[in-house]
Amino acid sequence: MEFQSTRERIVEILRRTQRPLRVEEIAMILGLEPSRKREIYEHLTHIAKTIRRQSSGKEVLIMELPKCRDCGFIFKNLKKPKEPSRCPKCKSERIDPPRFKIVLISNK
Questions:
Q1: What is the average per-residue pLDDT within 9-28?
Q2: Which helix (H) or strand (E) holds 100?
Q3: CATH number, domain at 90?
Q4: What percentage of the chain's residues is helix, strand, coil (to nearest 5)?
């Protein structure tokens, strides 16, 4: 059996999943504590760059954007993957977190 780093395991999970996953779901699949969410978000930032480069743009990490459950605000201007703590529009803390999946782009 070959050893896989956490990042490699995340890539494998996100390639095989049928639907985009929340960071909490990724942590659960990996057997990690939910308190390690920040670490997973850091991995996702690097994964996005790495898979695009390694696949010559044929694969990408997609992110379903976080959304406020109260007013529907969508966080479109995120510079990197993260879970916002509150809505800038209505100040609610009821935020649907981002979800992630690796997809193959067919026209490349």
A1: 96
A2: strand 99-104
A3: 1.10.10
A4: 35, 20, 45
Alpha helices in 1-108 (DSSP H): 6-16, 23-30, 37-54
Beta bridge partners of 96: 67
1 lies in some domain: no
pLDDT of residue 43: 95
Q: Could you list the residue range(s) of the whole structural domain that residue 70 is in?
A: 6-104
Q: Mind listing the pLDDT tens digit for each residue in 59-104? A: 999 999 999 999 999 999 888 888 899 999 999 999 999 999 999 9
If you count them, how many residues does the chain have? 108
Tally of CB atoms within 10 A around 41: 17
State the total domains in the chain.
1
What span, in angstroms and rounded, lies between the C-alpha atoms of 108 and 78? 26
